[in-house]
């Protein structure tokens, strides 16, 4: 859902499977974007990573990495229907083709501790050194156990954005890096507060928004006091279409800070039919009541 606020366009796009309560921070983020100027940026551009999905063979992974035009790529792994051997092939192919590229992997919590320990060792060898592993296991306790047994850095995503207490990752020493997503965590300023208190480096990542939603993630990354890692917000190319004239796309591995405006013609081309629109209007109403 897109709306024009007092300072610009905003986006409300919680995942379809989320219940109304889980959508409350997404609405908080949308309201902030509609009514508040972004925090003062420290940098004018934000480095981003490319994305290699968890399917296809080595040549496909190499092509995706090349198309990203980024110095860092995140390779999705551990997806249903794919094997560890498939994941190793993709990572190895990228390393062979791009000796200097930084490679990180994301398992989306799919591994057990035992599976994670084996997979991380083999994928780290294939990459000749992984930058980090994102969410290898589902629970914070599992992350803490894996982190205590591997040398590769561990990043927490779902264990922060889907947790009732995002600071358990810090308290249990379960991760080296915090992945923050603007909409699931309630907005740019809410993420800045978490970044200030969580006491670990931050990577800003997207929730696969349109260019309108991505500008909030860019604003967060631009305002962080330190940004040691490329951010996962170059996801606009994953959409079949966008709703702005000049979509937010990386150039030379970077995104520029700033807002964008809705293109009415492009919006009409992807506008939901009345039945879907009614469902989302009802969803918005329920979430507003909770907020």
Key terms for this structure?
single chain; 291 residues; alpha/beta; TIM Barrel; 7-stranded parallel sheet; two-stranded antiparallel ribbon; 11 helices; 11 strands; 41% helix; 13% strand
| CATH H level, superfamily name | Enolase-like C-terminal domain
Domain count, please report it: 1
In the CATH scheme, the class would be Alpha Beta
Shape: globular
Mean pLDDT: 96
Structure description:
The structure is a single chain. The protein is an alpha/beta fold and 291 residues long. The protein has one domain: Enolase-like C-terminal domain (TIM Barrel). It has 11 helices and 11 strands. It has a 7-stranded parallel β-sheet. Strands 1-2 form a two-stranded antiparallel sheet. Strand 9, helix 8 (188-198) and strand 10 form a beta-alpha-beta unit. It starts with a strand and ends with a helix.
TL;DR of this structure?
The protein is of the alpha/beta class and 291 residues long. The chain has eleven helices and eleven strands.
Helix/strand layout:
Blueprint: E1 2-4, E2 9-11, H1 24-35, E3 45-47, E4 50-52, H2 58-68, E5 72-76, H3 84-97, E6 102-106, H4 113-127, E7 133-134, H5 140-149, E8 154-156, H6 158-161, H7 168-171, E9 177-180, H8 188-198, E10 202-204, H9 211-223, E11 254-256, H10 264-270, H11 274-290
Parallel strand pairs: 4-5, 5-6, 6-7, 7-8, 8-9, 9-10
Antiparallel strand pairs: 1-2, 3-11
Helix pairs in contact: 2-3, 3-4, 8-9
């Amino acid at each position: 859902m897109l709306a024009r606020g007092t300072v610009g366009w905003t986006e409300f796009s919680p995942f379809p499977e989320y219940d109304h309560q889980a959508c409350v921070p997404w609405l908080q983020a949308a309201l902030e974007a509609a009514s508040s100027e972004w925090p003062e940026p420290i940098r004018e551009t934000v480095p981003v990573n490319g994305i290699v999905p968890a399917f296809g063979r080595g040549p496909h992974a190499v092509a995706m990495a090349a198309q990203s035009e980024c110095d860092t790529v995140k390779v999705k792994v551990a997806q249903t229907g794919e094997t560890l051997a498939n994941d190793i092939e993709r990572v190895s192919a990228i390393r062979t083709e791009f000796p200097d590229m930084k490679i990180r992997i994301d398992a989306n919590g799919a591994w057990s501790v035992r599976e994670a320990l084996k997979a991380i060792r083999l994928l780290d060898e294939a990459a000749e050194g992984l930058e980090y592993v994102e969410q290898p296991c589902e629970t914070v306790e599992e992350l803490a156990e894996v982190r205590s047994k591997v040398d590769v850095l561990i990043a927490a995503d779902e264990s922060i954005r889907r947790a009732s207490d995002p600071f358990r990752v810090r308290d249990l020493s379960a991760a080296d890096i915090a992945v923050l997503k603007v909409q699931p965590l309630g907005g740019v300023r809410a993420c800045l507060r978490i970044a200030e208190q969580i006491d670990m480096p931050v990577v800003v990542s997207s929730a696969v928004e349109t260019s309108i939603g991505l500008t909030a993630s860019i604003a967060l990354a631009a305002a962080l006091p330190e940004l040691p890692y490329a951010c996962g917000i170059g996801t606009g190319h994953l959409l079949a279409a966008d709703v702005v004239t000049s979509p937010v796309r990386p150039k030379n591995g970077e995104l520029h800070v700033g807002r964008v405006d809705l293109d009415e013609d492009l919006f009409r081309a992807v506008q939901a039919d009345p039945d879907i629109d009614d469902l989302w209007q009802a969803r918005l109403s329920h979430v507003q009541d909770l907020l």
